[in-house]
Write a structure and sequence with these properties.
Rossmann fold, nine-stranded mixed sheet
């Protein structure tokens, strides 16, 4: 067993004993992140890094490691409270932090397990594997999607490779989750550019700005950023707890990279005059929006366009309904085609997100100054969905799987592209362009465009493996049920 597998196995083995004490995977994950953060901060405070981590000696990792029994539990509770009262990023990370592991012996075992590993030297992928495994277990445990936290790392990396952020430019994510896009952009900038002192200082302090309304997820984002050496531990938080959709902040960015939360509508519960609970669809009345709607994804698309500088560029993950929904959806698509250059759409397969049956796409668009003529002249589609089969466990999405798309996108000069599809010579080609006129002529200006034949429908000898087929049937049924639930909820 390699070192990675050994650590993952250790994390799991401990995880399975905790539900007996009423500690769910979510709580366990949270405690684990506190402890790993403290351990990594301790590693960074020592040579060769010797970083200023801002954690007082009386509440650092060494102080925690030295305690046992009831004394340990009391100290841990105090530590969480005191660090939560600190200014800057450190205080934000530990805001409202609570100890959920009441058995001091198990808490000590967990500390001991974390202490045995050198976390700083561990690759990001390893830490990601541990964390994603916890997310998966949590999703299974609660029957709720961990999709709010999770965008496949391979997809994030591919989107960053296409956008190719440059030094001294700003990057925003209005629903940043655990900060995956920020970290991938940071890694890309470090790998691709030999930066001078000014550029390095900017990268540390200035480029990133995010929103995340879920407190635990925001905490993880800030931990991730600090451990990547982004920001100062006593500096201001780069991730706001505010709902990004409520208002235009007035700030404009060079890049927006985002996977806003899925889910058809935003709503809030209230008590009516008869004392009964009612739900009211949440709409955002903003002057800068083209359409008022309770569809959360359409609102995010509008908001992201507002966030961009006139030279700004965006890559955004959206579910299929954004491509074909009528009413407000049609208005948003038309305006997006007119006011920005919507140049590329990547169609994604099912089986890459935790939520079953999710059909998603990546929209790539560049903002421009106002013009009488539509900015979009043609939209290039890459169909990585038809006849593609992925599962989270047996066949997860890998960065290598998206290499052909990246090559087709041609990030170094996207104006020099060649179609992979040809009716005469390559009808199976996945890379095809459609003109602005062709799209405008479609019903409801639908961008839900596909041309490849589903081989499993035409050729019974070419069916996927039984487990893949069973998974796809389950995904389709669950997606159908989800749609019916939305309809039923709307009728109430």
């Amino acid at each position: 067993m390699n070192a990675t597998a050994s650590i993952v196995s250790k994390v799991w083995s401990f995880c399975t004993t905790l539900p007996e004490d009423g500690v769910g995977y979510g709580d366990y994950r949270e405690q684990l992140t506190y402890l790993i953060f403290l351990k990594m901060a301790d590693e960074y405070s020592q040579p060769p890094y010797s970083r200023k981590v801002g954690i007082p000696a009386e509440y650092n990792w060494q102080s925690l490691k030295a305690k046992r029994g009831a004394e340990l539990e009391v100290h841990y509770v105090t530590l969480l409270r005191e660090l939560g009262n600190k200014p800057g990023m450190l205080g934000t990370i530990f805001t409202k932090a609570q100890n959920k592991i009441q058995d001091p012996a198990k808490l000590y075992r967990l500390i001991d397990m974390v202490n045995e590993t050198e976390w700083v030297t561990m690759g990001a992928d390893v830490k990601g594997d541990i964390y994603e495994g916890l997310l998966e277990r949590n999703a299974e445990d609660t029957k709720s999607g961990a999709g709010q936290y999770f965008t496949p790392r391979a997809l994030i990396r591919a989107m960053v490779e296409c956008v190719r952020p440059e030094p001294m430019k700003t990057i925003a994510d209005p629903a940043c989750g655990t900060g995956g896009f920020f970290l991938a952009a940071y890694d890309f900038l470090v790998a691709e550019h030999k930066m001078d002192k000014t550029q390095k200082a900017f990268l540390k302090h200035d480029p990133f700005n995010g929103n995340e309304i879920v407190a635990g997820t925001r905490r993880l984002a800030l931990m991730n950023m600090f451990l990547h050496n982004i920001g100062e531990i006593d500096g201001e938080s780069m991730v706001s707890p505010n709902d990004a959709l409520v208002a235009d902040s007035g700030k404009r960015y060079d890049y927006v990279l985002a996977n806003p939360p899925f889910g058809k509508k935003s709503s809030m519960s209230f008590t009516n005059d008869e004392g009964e609970q009612e739900k009211d669809d949440l709409t955002y009345n903003r002057q800068d929006f083209w359409a008022t709607t309770s569809n959360k994804q359409l609102n995010f698309v509008q908001h992201i366009r507002t966030m961009l500088k006139t030279t700004g560029r965006a890559a955004v993950v959206v579910p299929d309904n954004v491509l074909f929904e009528g009413g407000a959806g049609e208005t948003v698509r038309k305006k997006l085609l007119e006011t920005t250059e919507l140049h590329t759409i990547l169609r994604l397969p099912t089986g890459i997100f935790y939520a079953n049956g999710v059909k998603a796409n990546v929209l790539f668009f560049d903002n421009h100054a106002a013009s009488k003529e539509p900015w979009t002249k043609e939209v290039w589609f890459y169909d990585y969905r038809t006849n593609i089969h992925h599962t989270l466990k047996k066949k997860p999405l890998r960065f290598e799987d998206l290499q052909e798309f990246i090559a087709s996108y041609n990030p170094l000069n996207r104006h020099e592209r060649k179609e992979g599809w040809s009716e005469a010579t390559n009808p199976e080609g996945r890379w095809r362009k459609f003109s602005y006129e062709q799209i405008m002529a479609r019903d409801k200006t639908s961008l839900d465009i596909f041309w490849l034949k589903d081989k499993s429908l035409a050729d019974l000898d070419n069916l996927p493996e039984p487990d893949v087929l069973a998974g796809e049937i389950i995904e389709n049924l669950e997606a159908g049920l989800s749609s019916f639930r939305e309809i039923a909820a709307a009728l109430q």
